[in-house]
Task: inverse folding
């Protein structure tokens, strides 16, 4: 077949060559393939029910805006399904303002309800201010990840959501598995999953509809739909080990197409084999804020409480 013609429909010029499959795709077939893959992922992992109210975590970046667009298309077939976008303003000067504006613009364009919450509202400090007051600290990403998860959970509960959808892509999932492995965190390695459920209702079910789509294909889908993404990178991203790991994994995928998918499949198998041997953690309500915790205080309250802030004003003010 002519390599310049779509290998799926055979009628239109090639738009993208998917090296790990050895096939060229036109723009229409490429977009359809991404939507079908997301739909299959949702079905395979039983992520949603027809009457779900889904809190879609929308940062304003390429992954979250693309996820929102795809979920909006899929949800149009299910009239009882409701979407609400949730955006977290971490308080990072010169970075988050653009993203929040993009999220506001696209939720309005897609006619999706939008809830914005901030670290300042919940914890009393934006991330920049929080970090400036710490002489010795973890990486910014360590704090931000914990605070963001809590903020999204609180906002999702506020709007009455039944599920939380995050825009973790295939690259993210593989990087997270490797990070947990390198850091010896077997418990998190085993419990990392496209779907995280809690039968006791301590936290809302979290799902990753894009977990089987490579990052570059998500970006290309967004560009093909005319989406405008955030142009400014997070000023703290170079602090994280993930940034170095991302570069290494990207190089491997370019040199050996398909490495991401083979790693993903292997890690899911390892997770299944290891899971029976790892004792399950017991979640209890945080004595300070009431959110799920593995000990008396949740991780976010321990981080902020060390500074004597949140413990003086029990329970987040968001709700």
Result:
């Amino acid at each position: 077949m002519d390599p310049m013609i779509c290998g799926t429909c055979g009628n239109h010029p090639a738009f993208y060559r998917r090296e790990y499959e050895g096939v060229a795709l036109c723009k229409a077939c490429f977009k359809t393939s991404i939507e079908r893959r997301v739909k299959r992922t949702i079905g395979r992992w039983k992520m949603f029910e027809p009457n779900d109210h889904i809190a879609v975590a929308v940062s304003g970046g390429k992954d979250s805006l693309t996820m929102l667009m795809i979920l909006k298309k899929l949800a149009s077939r299910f009239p009882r399904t409701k979407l609400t976008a949730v955006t977290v303003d971490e308080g990072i000067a010169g970075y988050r303002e653009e993203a929040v504006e993009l999220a506001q613009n696209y939720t309005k364009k897609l006619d999706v309800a939008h809830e914005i919450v901030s670290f300042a509202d919940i914890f009393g400090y934006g991330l920049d201010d929080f970090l400036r007051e710490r002489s010795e600290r973890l990486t910014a990403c360590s704090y931000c990840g914990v605070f963001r998860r809590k903020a999204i959970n609180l906002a999702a509960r506020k709007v009455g959501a039944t599920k939380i959808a995050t825009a973790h892509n295939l690259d993210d999932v593989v990087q997270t598995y490797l990070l947990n492995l390198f850091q010896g965190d077997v418990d998190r390695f085993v419990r990392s999953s496209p779907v995280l459920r809690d039968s006791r209702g301590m936290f809302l079910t979290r799902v990753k509809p894009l977990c089987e789509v490579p990052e570059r294909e998500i970006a290309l889908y967004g560009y093909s739909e005319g989406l405008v993404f955030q142009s400014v990178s997070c000023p703290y991203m170079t602090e994280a080990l993930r940034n170095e790991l991302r570069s290494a994994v990207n190089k491997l995928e370019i040199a050996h197409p398909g490495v991401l998918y083979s790693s993903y499949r292997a890690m899911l198998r390892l997770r299944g084999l290891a899971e029976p041997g790892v004792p399950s953690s017991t979640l209890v309500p945080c004595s300070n804020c009431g959110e799920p915790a593995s000990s008396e205080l949740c991780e976010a309250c321990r981080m902020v409480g060390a500074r004597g802030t949140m413990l003086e004003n029990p329970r987040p003010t968001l709700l």
